[in-house]
Amino acid sequence: MTTRGRSNSTVLTHEHVFLTGGTGFVGQAILERLLSSHPGTRISVLVRGKGSQSAQARLDNLLRKPVFRSWIDQVGEEEARRQFAERVTVVDGSLTAVGALPRGIDVVIHSASTVSFDPPIDEAFDTNIGGAHGVYGALLDSGDDPHVVHISTAYVGGIRKGIVPEARLDHDVDWRAEYAAARSARERVELESRQPDVLRRHLARARARHGKTGPQSVAAFAETMRREWVRERLVDYGRMRAQSLGWTDVYTLTKAFAERAAEELWADAGHRLSVVRPSIIESALRHPFPGWIDGFKVADPLIIAYGRGQLPDFPGLPDSVLDVIPVDFVVNATLAVAARPAVAARPEYFQVVSGKTNPLPFHRMYENVHTYFTANPLPDGDGEVRVPTWRFPGGTKVERALERRERKAARAERIVERLPATPRTRRWLDEIARGRHSLDQLRGFTELYRAYVRTEIIFDDARTRELLATLPAAVRRDEGFDVTDIDWEQYFQQIHFPAVTGMTRVFERRPTGKARGARALPVREDVVAVFDLEGTVLESNLVQQYLQLWAATVPRSRVAHDLIDVGLSLRSYWKAERRDRGEFIRTFMRRYRGFKVADIRREVRGRFGRAMLRRALPDALQRVLDHRAAGHRTILVTGSIDLMVEPFAPYFDEVVAGRMHERDGVLTGFLADPPLVDEARAAWLRHYAQQHGFDLSQSYGYGDSHADLAWLQLTGNPTAVNPDIRLYRHAREKHWNVLDWSRGAAPIPSPPRDEPHTTASSVREGADRAS
Length: 771
Ligand SMILES: NC(=O)c1ccc[n+]([C@@H]2O[C@H](COP(=O)([O-])OP(=O)(O)OC[C@H]3O[C@@H](n4cnc5c(N)ncnc54)[C@H](OP(=O)(O)O)[C@@H]3O)[C@@H](O)[C@H]2O)c1
What we know:
binds NADP nicotinamide-adenine-dinucleotide phosphate; alpha/beta; 7-stranded parallel beta sheet
C-alpha cells in the first residue's frame, strides 16, 4: 500500500487521482485502465457541460464507449456500473474555471488540451496556457501536494535536427508576454476586419457571388466572409508566431509554454512534477483491445486521403522518422510515471516515443499504406480506388506541382461558371469540385504535416526505458510500453489500418444530407409546393416569349427596326440578368410599351398560349399534379406578368404573377409592382405561409436559378431543376435534390378538370387573396 501523498511504489494502488481530459482519446483510455487494472484507486474527473448535456451526464455516458467494452464483459454490466458510480466522481468545470477541487488528491494527470495544430492563436493559448493556469491555480488553492503528471507532446522541442533529450526545454521566450499578446489578438483583428477597405473587398466578392439572390444574401455573405477572414488571420497569427519563434505550429508552441507554466507555477513552488511527452498517438496495440481508437487521430486523415486516391504524391522525406506510438503504451507509461517516487521541485521528463528504439521511416510507412490499400481498396462508386505510387521527388517539386494544379483548377472553374448550364457543364463542375477538394486537402495536409514528415528529429527515450526496466515482470507484461515489441507491419496491416478504414466505412454508410423527392409525397394539407415558371415549368424565357408575341401583334412597318433593336440590346440584357433578375425584368418589360392588352389576351388564348404549353416540361406539370393529389397547395410564382401565364393556371391552385401598368387598354412599359423575384419572393412566401398557416419546413420548392436561392432555402424540400451553375453548386453543397427535366420525355399531362384556381396578379394580392 502507498502512503497518501507520497507514492513510493511502481504501480498505483489506493491513490485518489484527479484526471483532466477524461472525455478525450487518451483520457478515456487512462480512466479505463485505472478502473480495470487499479481497483483501489478513486478518480475525480474534470468534465465540462456541453450543449444541453451536464458534466455528470457526459461522464455517465462515457461508460457506453467502446473503450470500456472488454472491462464490462469481464466484470459484468452491473458490477461495472457499481464501480463506476462508487469510484468515479465528476468535478464540474472547465480548464479555465476549474472551481474547488476535492480534498486528498494524491496524483493529478493533466491530459486536457486542444490538440488541433492550427486553431486561432487566442483559442490555442486560452486552452493550453489559460488551462495550465486554471489547473495549477486550483491545485495551489486546494493546499494539497499531489504528484502532477503533465501530458505534453514530444514535438515541444520545436523545429530542429538531431537528438532531443528528455529534459527541460531550452528556451528563454517570455511565455507570459506571448500569452498576453495572443489574448489581445482577437480584438485587434476584429477592429481591422471592420476597416472600409477590407469590407469593400468582401462586399465586392459577395455581390459577384450573390447579387442575383438579393441584397440580404449579399450582406449575409459579406459578414460570413468577414468572420472567416478574422478566423484565418488569427490562425495565421498563431502559425507565424510559432514559426518565428522556432516551433512548427501554435499547438507545439503552446504545449511548450504549458510545460514552462507547469514548472514555474507548480514545481518551483516546491511540488512534484513529471512531464510525459508522447509522439503521434494511434490505435491500441493490445489494450483495451487491439485497434481501439476514438475517432480519427493525427495521422489518420492522411492515411484515409491516400486510400481514397486523393494524394498523388506528398512532400515528405522518405528517410525521416514518423514517430508513432500506440495509445496503450502512452497510458501504461503515464501510470508508471504517476506511480514512481518523484522529488519535489525537480521535474522529470519522459518521452514516450518509438523513433529512437524502433524507428519507422516515412518510406516504410508509405509502403505499408500502399500495400494495405492495394489489397483492401476503398470503394469508389461502383468500382474501387486505385491508390497512387509516390516517388518522393522532393518537397519543393511536389509543392510547385501542387501550385500549378491549383491555378489550373481555378481557371477551369472560372470558365465553366460562364458556360450555359447543361447536364454536361454540371458534370464538369462536379469533376472540378472533386479535383479542388483533393487539392485543398493536399494543401491542408502539406501545411499541417510538413514538419512531421520532413523532420530530422530523433527523440531520446532512455529515461522512459529505464522506468520500464524498474517495473515488476508481471506489470511489464500486462502494462508495459516496450516499443521493441511493436512489429510495424503487423501493427499497421492487422490492427491500425483495419481500425481506421472500419470507421470510414461506418461513416460512408450513414445517409448524408437531405436528397429527397424520389420518396412518395406525404398526404397533408398544411404544406405548399411552389414552382418557378421559366426554366422550371416552362422551357422558354422572357425574351423568347416577347419575340413570339411581338411577331403575332406588331405592325409590319416596325419589324426591321424592332429586330435590330432587340439584337443590339441582348448583351446589356444578359449583363443585367447576371447581376440582378429584377433589374433585367424591369428593363426588358419596357419593350411591351404600346402593346394592346386585348391583342395579348387574344394571342394568349390562341396560338401563343398553345405554343407556350408545347414548351412546358411534362415532368414539372406531372409533379404539380402529384402535389395536388397529395393535398398540397400548388402555387406558380413568376416574375412574368399575369397576362402571359394564363395557359398554366388550370394546373395550379394558385398563380402569383407580376402586373403591368396600362392606360386605356395599352401597356405603358412600366411594371405595376416590383418584380416578384429573389428575396422579394422569399419575403412573399414567408408572409403567405404565416398568414395561411402553411408549414414551410415541410413544404416544397422548385426553381432553376441562383435568383431562386433565397426562397428555395425557406422550404424543407428544395429542388434545383435544370439549375444554373451557381444554384447547382449550392444544391450540391447542401445535398439538395437536383433534377433534370426535359421536353419530349413524356406527353404533357392534362390539367385537372373543373378545379377552381386563384390567379393573384401582384405581390400584395398573392399574400392576401389565397383561401
Ligand atoms: N493525440 C495525439 O496524437 C497526441 C500526441 C501527443 C500528445 N498528446 C497530448 O495528449 C493529451 C490528450 O490528447 P487527446 O488526443 O486525448 O486529445 P482529445 O481527444 O482532443 O481530448 C482533449 C480533452 O481535453 C478536454 N478539454 C479541451 N479543452 C478543455 C477545456 N477548456 N476545459 C476542459 N476540458 C477541456 C476535452 O474535453 P471536452 O470533451 O469537453 O472537449 C477532452 O477531454 C493532450 O495533452 C495532447 O496534447 C496527444
